[in-house]
Design brief:
The chain is an alpha+beta fold. It is built from 5 helices and 11 strands; from the N terminus they run ααββββββααββαβββ. It has a single domain, classed as Lipoprotein localisation LolA/LolB/LppX (outer membrane lipoprotein receptor (LolB), chain A, Clam). The longest helix has 15 residues. It is globular.
Length: 241
Amino acid sequence: MSRPPRLSEFSPGRPVGSRRGAPVLRTVCALAAALAFPAIGAPAEQDLFDTLHARITAAEAKRTSIRARFVESTTSTLLVKPMVSQGTLVGEKPARMVITYLAPEHRTILMDGQRLFVTRAGRKDVEQVDITEIMKTVNKYFTNADPGQLRRAFTIRAVQDPAAPGAYLVDMLPKRKQIKQGLERLQFGVSRDYMLTQLTMTFAGGDTTVFKLEDVELNVPVAPGTFDPPVPPAPPTNRKR
């Protein structure tokens, strides 16, 4: 039996079939950005990041679901020019999400907190990955971490966004080897209403992915069946006449 993939094994350019590469990592990080960041308290001496963290936490406590469009831009040494994808995203706490890529390739990534499914237009097979261990890492270093714990795992700098009054930028550089093996840098864009609207990931080796949310709707009703795992079609049966 093969073991579940580790976070350090994920890098751009690896197809889903090879340790279930970049799509899984992008999905997990997008989930952390869109639905996570609840935390516990902050140090007595606060800086801008502590203040942002507290306000994001308070805002996130009132949010249960999200629907948005997204633009994803990927640069890689394996690509001649950046690859730009567009699509839609629906998420629901605590860890359910459907990311539907509409262009240039049509594919769907569904995540239920324990498993991740990938389906592609024109293909009948459904790829499935156990992400239990990855989610444990995300919860440890992001979702359940307070500012002090985050600083033990990352060097963090928060500043006001000079291009967007009232918005902020958060820059996180991993300190721990376990994280640095797969991720060199993580940057968040925070809107004036304390929503994480842009995620920039720089992977080991210098490849980057920018995931930007647009037309965000919060606390929207989610249709029944939205997060049901895809089931591959049953093979045809030979019926005797």
